[in-house]
Each structure stands twice: as C-alpha cells, then as structure tokens.
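Q: I'm building a small set of examples for a reading group on sequence design. Run inverse folding on the following structure and report the sequence directly after it, with nothing in between.
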C-alpha cells in the first residue's frame, strides 16, 4: 500500500477555483478531482462555460464533485460573499486574471487588486472557520522580467517595480505596454494579498505560484487560443512568435498544476512564493531560496523540473 502523507485539508473537501475556464485552472481542477477532492469553479457566465461540465469533466459533474457558480463581476464589492457563504470551501485557488494585455493600466490593475481584496475579504468574513488555504496564481513577472543571458539574483524581497513604473508611465498607451501592465497587475495583486494578511490576520494561510511561460497539453481546444497554442503556431509557420519568449523560460502546465495542488495540500507550505523553474541550469541563480523540489516531488507527483519556494 502506498504511503499516505498528511494533508492540510482531507480528501472530499471542497476547493473553490476562480477563473476555472483558464488553461491552468482546468489542469488544477483535474489534479484535485482525481485525488478525491470536490471542485467548484467560478465563472462570469454559466452558459458560456458549459463546455467544462459537458466536454472536460462530464463524469465528475455527473458525480456532483465538480460544478460551476456564476459571478458576473469579480471586482464588485462583496462579489464573492454569497458563493463563499454557501460553499464554505476548505481552500480557494485564485487563478482569474485579465488576459487582454490592455496597455492602459487603469483598465487592468485596479480591478485585479479589487478582485483580490474582495475575495480575501469574503473568505475572512463569511468562511473563516472553513477556509484553510488561499492560493494565488501569480507570475514570474511579479518578481522580475526575465532577460536572455542576464543572470538575476532574487530574494524574498524581490518585486518587479520596474514593470509597475513602466505600466503607470504617462500615455500614450502603446500596445507594447500590455506586457508590463500585466506584470504590474501581478505585482500589485500579490503585494495586496500579503498586506491583507498582515493587516487582518485571518486564520487561513496564503501562498502564490509564480510560473514562467506555460506550455503543454490541453484539455479542450479552447485553450489553444492562449499560450498553449504557441508550439502549434510555430509549427504552423508563424515563426515570428518563436522569439517572443526567451529560450529556457517555459514550464509544463501539469507541473504548474501540481505546484498549486501541493500549495493547497502540503501542511508546510505557508506564506510562500512557489516558483517552478524549467531548467536545472537556472538553479544557480536562486541558491538563497529554500529548495522544496524533493518534498514536492515525493508528495505530489514526479516532476521533471525543479521547484523553488521562499517565504514572503
């Protein structure tokens, strides 16, 4: 019989996932469902997200271990109160984020931060006895902007303030600013999460997952419209996209999902940034960090990549 490891929440517990229609969230849900957990996904429109229950998770939907709830405006005050009060989830995974790469920071950063604080507030206010873990899907862009052949030394205090400054520079808002605005939104959302914890002291613990560019298999063809379609586009002759992401800065979506699951289930992951790095050669950049790869690999899955975590 396989060795059973202690978990922060027991099998059968309900995990609430925002942005459930996204590429990463679908794999996180699959991992959790296959481990015996229940998943409730938050969507903005139930009818437009029906493909999840019909095409991706039909057996789990039939078994009532996977379902969807609708919140049209995630950034609205107290938007999550009713859903969280009725669900009483044991964990919340917040993956929802705008992927429009809008270059105007006013259209992106304030609603991203508002959604974060609204969700945290609801969890602390109406489900303080049930929620044990809150996990945020951030980005390596929250820490720094990777540069080819440019070594970087990062610490627990590293934030991508350069992206924030670039995002809020005066107009015009040219399209190429969209990436900086996206990174800045991750900086501000993640910082607001840790600030909320410091100021309010809820009983649950938080962690963030900060991956590089995510590639890998898809659970539905809709996800080929995002980063998962990058390889297909290259093979399809769109050579110009090949240089968009620096070589060596990709990570498999299944590894990213496993790290989310580990952040939820591992009792020792608390107040932590978790970053999966795609190549052992990069590990020399981050020697000051606590290396959690052995623990993550042995508990949750056999990973092909290193996983680093450091406390905020």
């Amino acid at each position: 019989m396989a060795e059973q490891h202690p978990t922060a929440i027991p099998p059968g517990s309900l995990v609430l996932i925002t942005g459930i229609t996204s590429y990463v969230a679908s794999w996180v849900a699959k991992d959790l469902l296959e481990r015996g957990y229940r998943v409730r996904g938050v969507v903005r429109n139930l009818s437009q997200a029906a493909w999840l229950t019909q095409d991706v998770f039909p057996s789990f939907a039939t078994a009532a271990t996977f379902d969807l709830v609708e919140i049209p405006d995630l950034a609205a005050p107290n938007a999550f109160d009713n859903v969280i009060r009725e669900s009483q989830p044991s964990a919340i995974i917040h993956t929802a984020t705008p992927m429009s790469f809008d270059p105007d920071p006013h259209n992106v950063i304030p609603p991203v931060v508002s959604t974060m604080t609204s969700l945290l507030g609801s969890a602390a206010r109406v489900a303080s006895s049930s929620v044990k873990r809150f996990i945020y899907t951030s980005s390596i862009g929250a820490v720094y902007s990777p540069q080819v052949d440019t070594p970087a030394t990062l610490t627990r205090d590293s934030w991508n303030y350069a992206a924030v400054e670039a995002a809020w520079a005066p107009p015009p808002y040219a399209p190429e600013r969209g990436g900086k605005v996206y990174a800045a939104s991750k900086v501000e959302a993640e910082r607001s999460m840790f600030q909320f914890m410091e100021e309010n002291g809820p009983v649950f613990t938080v962690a963030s997952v900060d991956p590089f560019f995510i590639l890998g298999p898809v659970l539905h063809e809709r996800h080929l419209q995002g980063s998962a379609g990058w390889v297909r586009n290259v093979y399809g002759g769109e050579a110009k996209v090949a240089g968009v992401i620096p070589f060596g800065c990709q990570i498999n979506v299944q590894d990213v999902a496993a790290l989310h699951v580990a952040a939820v289930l591992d009792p020792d992951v608390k107040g932590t940034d978790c970053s999966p790095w795609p190549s052992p050669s990069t590990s020399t950049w981050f020697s000051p960090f606590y290396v959690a790869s052995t623990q993550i690999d042995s508990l949750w899955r056999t990973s092909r990549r290193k996983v680093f975590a450091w406390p905020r």
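The two ends are 37 Å apart (CA to CA).
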